[in-house]
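Treating backbone geometry as a discrete language has practical consequences that deserve illustration. No coordinates are needed to read the tokens, only the vocabulary itself. For completeness, the protein is quoted in full, as a sequence line and a line of structure tokens:
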Amino acid sequence: MDGQGGGDKGGFRELWKGRYMQSLRFREMLLKQTVFWGVGATVGGAVTLAVVLTPVVNQYVAYGFGRFFLLFFNYLFFGSIIE
């Protein structure tokens, strides 16, 4: 199966659209995923930029924050999806 639908003359895209149109639950799941990743990436990027670009923050603190902030969000993410 071609993931982008380029080689199968639209079969993948038609199946995806059919699944999308038939299932309200599938649409809700895609919306939740989009919001979750979009908001998380925006907030994470904004906080990281705010800390790293602040002139008062030491260079080593900025490096450490950039490294461990991502680990913190990974733990937060996996803690929220693993039951």
The longest helix spans residues 24-52. The helical segments are 11-22, 24-52, 59-81. Residues 39 and 45 are 10 Å apart (CA to CA).
